Amino acid sequence: MEIDILELSDRSARFILSDVDAAFANGLRRAMLADVPTLAIDEVNIYNNTSVLYDEQVALRLALVPLVTSFDEFTPHEECSCEEGCPACTVSLTLSVEAPMGEEKTVYSGDLVSADPKVKAADSNIPVVKLKGGQQLVLEAIAKMGYGHDHAKWQAGVACGYKNVPVIRIEDCDLCEKCVEACPRDILALGEESAEVVNDRLLNCSLCKQCVEVCGIDAISVRENDTSFIFTLESDGSYSAEELIMNAVNTIRTKASTLDDILGEL
Fold it and tell me: Which of 96, 141, 189, 200 stands the most exposed, by the fewest C-beta atoms within 10 Å?
């Protein structure tokens, strides 16, 4: 297996995964979406809510606020040895906001105060509810470590997909230029002796094969590379894009090791 990073930022990444089959590529995609545990608000104790929203609506909005998570410092709640929650699997966050009389005030995710300084809202500007003068919202939220396959609030990868790396071959070209004109993404250009792929544009190919259809002499072929995939992913901020990739790989490795141990006992 080989990974070639094309683009990498704090919350997004684009890379090529090579020397694997489609089953492994899809397993990595699913792991990033559903099998990497994250922290999310699971219980809310509301002590005072005079806002326009019902308690349930406030709790729902808070549950979908991404929380910065440390993969190594917390244990998924369902796997923890405790029964009612402990510092290893849960974190308490409090919120207390009151709008001054005659003014309006918006409650944001950044108003959550965590008992653990390492845990905070990934984005501090997510609006929760708008309060009018004199209205108040006081609550305690309990965040638990969980998996995306149980609920979307624990899904760190908000967008993750892949496609096969395209393979374009051109032989015996007669320089008619029809394939160049047909390509919707300007991947092809006319060279001195043949049509050719423009440098750094191959990965933009959508495999539409319009160039193949207009070529009257079958000089061009377009196919998928069955062992090489272009991944695009975006994190919700619970983890950085790099952490999400590595945590997904470690999750797959752990599951494979567990399965190997079980089979060894048979």
Answer: 200
Residue 215, marked binder: no
CATH code, residues 37-154? 2.170.120.12
DSSP three-state, residue 164 = strand
If you ran DSSP here, which 8-state letter would residue 175 be given?
Answer: -
217 with 4: CB under 8 angstroms? no
Whether the CB-CB separation of 174 and 217 falls below 8 Å is answered with yes
Reported as a pLDDT band with limits 50, 70 and 90, residue 7 is very high
d(CA 74, CA 82): 13
Query: Cα dihedral sign for 148, 149, 152, 153?
Result: negative
Q: Is 183 annotated as a binding residue?
A: no
* Per-residue pLDDT reduced to its tens digit, 126-145: 999 999 999 999 999 999 99
Which residue intervals of the chain bear CATH 2.170.120.12? 37-154
Question: Position of tokens 């939220």?
Answer: 141
Which amino acid, 241? Answer: A
Residue pair 100/47 in contact by the 8 Å Cβ criterion: no
Reduced to 3 states, what is the DSSP secondary structure of residue 143? Answer: strand
Q: Which of 231, 255, 230 is nearest to 37 (CA)?
A: 255
Binding site annotation covers 173?
no
Return the CATH fold of 2-34+158-232. Answer: Gyrase A; domain 2 (3.30.1360)
List, in sequence order, the alpha helices (H) in 44-123. 55-63
pTM of the complete model: 0.84
Q: Using alpha carbons only, what angle is made at residue 42 by residues 38 and 46, rounded to the nearest 5 degrees?
A: 140
Q: Write phi, then psi, for 63 (nearest 5 degrees).
A: -65, -30
Residue 3: strand pairing partners: 17
